[in-house]
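[SOLVED] Need 3D model of a two-part complex

Original post:
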Amino acid sequence: MERIAAGTNKTAYRLRRVLTTALLLLLGLVFLLPFIWMLSASFKPELEVFTYPIQWIPNNWNLVENYTNVWAGKVDFVLYYWNSIQVAVLTTLLSVLVSAMAAYGFTKIRFRGRNLLFLIVLATYMIPPEATHVPLFVIYRWMGLYDTHAGLILLGGFSVLGTFLLRQFFEGISNEYLESAQVDGAGHFTRFMRITLPLARPALATYGILRFIWTWNDFQTPFLFLSDKTLYTIQLGMYSFADRNGSFYALIMAASVSAIIPLLVVFIIGQKQVIEGISFGGLKG
Amino acid sequence: MIASYNPYEAEVADIQAIDKQEAVMLRRSGRARRRREMLAGYLFTGPMLVGVLIFTLVPMLLSFGLSLTDWSFVTGIETIRFDGFGNFARLFATDAFANSLVHNLVLLLSVPVGMTLALALAVVITTRVYTPGLFKVIFFMPHISSIVAVAVVWQVLFHPSYGPVNSMLMALGIAEPPKWLADPSYALTSVLMLMVWIDMGVALIIYIAGLKNIPADLYEAAEIDGATSWKKFKHITFPLLTPTTFFLLITGLIGNFKSFALIKVLTDGGPVKSTTVIAYDMYTEGFVNLRTGYASSMAVVLFAVILLITLIQWIGQRKWVNY
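Solution:
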């Protein structure tokens, strides 16, 4: 008797779980409708974008024409892509390197003023970048960094967030490894390159992926510090494309899909790291 | 007094001398090592320190300085004129600034709304469904997508005359649905809805991480006592998540208060300035109208508000949060 009761209980429990999953999937689908609509509209001829009831699967396909128009049309999407790749990759590399070095210095080297300097870095984290942009605009003009990719890369590369994230991780690296290397006569440079960095690979990957996504998606900084159209990143390009093609909605949707896809790929590949990194402290910016 | 005589005096003196020499040498090499250590410390932290100095500290100090001047940088450094708190007086006297501040405060509502939804979803996802990983990805999608693409899609979805949202509302029998982003009295609400949609995923992921840290035996004990799901949530889950909730609230408020990109792309402050916010005004003054001093005073206000929120966090952490 009891066993049967337990069995039905288990079935009931499973059934409820399956039902809840199905319901939540439905909710998730509704949540993602804007993306699904965007994808579907990007396949349609212009005249059928707004037909109602919505044709989720287009009656007439215009996929090739729409995407060719975006990629080989008047707006140079290929160039924007290339610019974005350059800026995002270089910013990520610079930021990971500078942050890892600083994190190593603040955890593994004893030097005078270390705590004070770290406190200063910590304090600047409270300063919202937005509050510095107006003077930075003036400084950038004087330094010749305005309207250059270098300006964007430097600004993103010296964000202090990575230092905190990696410092936390480096503190977990046992000093024994490092000290045994020290006995063998290895200096800080060797200990950093040969021991710390390989051990910290997961943390470096997490921060690197996050920094890449943030840089790729950043609209604000390029919008403020670039004016030359040939230097535009994909976000700026997309913005000016939407501005110029105000009523060609199928094309705008094709451009939006093109702008989101690389990020989606990075996110799906690095999903674990992204979610870990976000959970680590709800970091953003 | 008997003079002590040590037959090995000379040897002892020799040994002492050698010891002293060695000690000096050792101390010297210790000092050299410490100096090398210092140098290494500065070399490793140096790049970040210089970066922080150039890209954050100096600009911040300049913000404070420039906020006290009447200056446009295009006219050159020689036209700079000290103006005391003139900018601030002008700022607080204009309706535009007051309006933006009100819009900012209204938009802050999206933070608790998004957090409530996120908490409910997080509980369901961690305890009641299969494939929790898939749901994390689904609800995180809007956040990972670029603001520009997302804003453009929503503009089209909410198009007043032929967007799918209003087509559906009209099909449901609503003759005159709101014009959403094109209607001054609905635009801010539309922006708020979109903010909830974009930012909810972050809160969700952090809540899920927080839920995993709650020891399972607490729930088991409660079940033995016959506690209902709601009671378990009220007496275990919610109180133990207070640090997470508090953290999300503070970072959410700060992030929301600074929002610029979404507003710029989605509404450009309109229609009829019904969606302007402080950051939007600041960029318009500083980068379009080139009123450097005036825009700097807005930056200072922005900084002050965010500092205030951070201070509340510091004080509140001690008082309100159960660890």
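Edit: Residues 177 and 242 of chain A are 55 Å apart (CA to CA).
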